[in-house]
Amino acid sequence: MLDSNEYKSDSTLAQHCREADKVIGDYTKAIELNPDEASAYVKRGLAYRVKCKYDRAVADFGRAIELGNDSAYLERGSVYREKGEYDKAIVDYTKEIELCHQDPIAFYERGNAYKALGKKFEAIADFEEFIKLAKESGIVEHAKQEVERLRG
Fold first, then answer.
1. What span, in angstroms and rounded, lies between the C-alpha atoms of 95 and 134?
2. Long-range contacts of the stretch 75-78 (C-beta < 8 A, 24+)
3. What is the DSSP letter of 134?
4. Is residue 139 left, alpha or beta, with left meaning phi > 0 and alpha meaning psi from -120 to 50?
5. What is the pTM of this model?
6. Can you tell me whether residue 137 is helix, strand or coil?
7. Residue among 102, 104, 83, 81 nearest 92 (CA)
8. Phi and psi dihedrals of 4, rounded to 5?
């Protein structure tokens, strides 16, 4: 019989979740063997997200949070944003920022949620904070462009 680590190692999301159903099945088995392992819920939630099974993804990220995985706030916030539930997304991104010491990606994602709600000044503030905290990347350039567009 395989243990939970063997099920997890058999599945990786590094393959761009082309095998999302297999990932879901493997992490479901891992969770059955060890229901208190937060990382298994996060990884299964990511696979559910890829398959657009958002309610299941939210449930898995919520369980991971209950088990102490603070990084699941960012993932759950992203699912809420994809569902158009921007207020819930903002709450989760804010929690991620508080818990993970100014996570730059959380500022970027929260900025996008604020932008979707038409909260221009909040969006600009978050994009500018992201630019300040993030290392140079294509996303930084995108954030700079968003700030310029929002300033009009």
1. 18
2. 75/42, 75/45, 75/46, 75/49, 76/45, 77/106, 77/109, 77/110, 77/113, 78/49, 78/109
3. S
4. alpha
5. 0.83
6. coil
7. 81
8. -65, -35
Contact call for residues 115 and 141 (beta carbons, < 8 A):
no
Set out the domains of the chain in order of their start, with CATH numbers: 1-69 (1.25.40.10), 85-152 (1.25.40.10)
The distance from CA 83 to its chain's CA centroid, rounded to whole angstroms, is: 13
| Contact status, residue 35 vs residue 65, Cβ threshold 8 Å | no
- Residue at token pair 């508080």: 98
Where residue 101 falls (left for φ over 0; alpha for ψ -120 to 50; beta otherwise) is left
d(CA 24, CA 106): 26
pLDDT, tens digit, for every residue of 39-95?
999 999 999 999 999 999 999 999 999 999 999 999 999 999 999 999 999 999 999
DSSP assignment of 1-38 equals ---HHHHHHH--GGGTTTTHHHHHHHHHHHHHH-TT-H
Q: What does the pLDDT look like over 114-135, one tens digit per residue?
A: 999 999 999 999 999 999 999 7
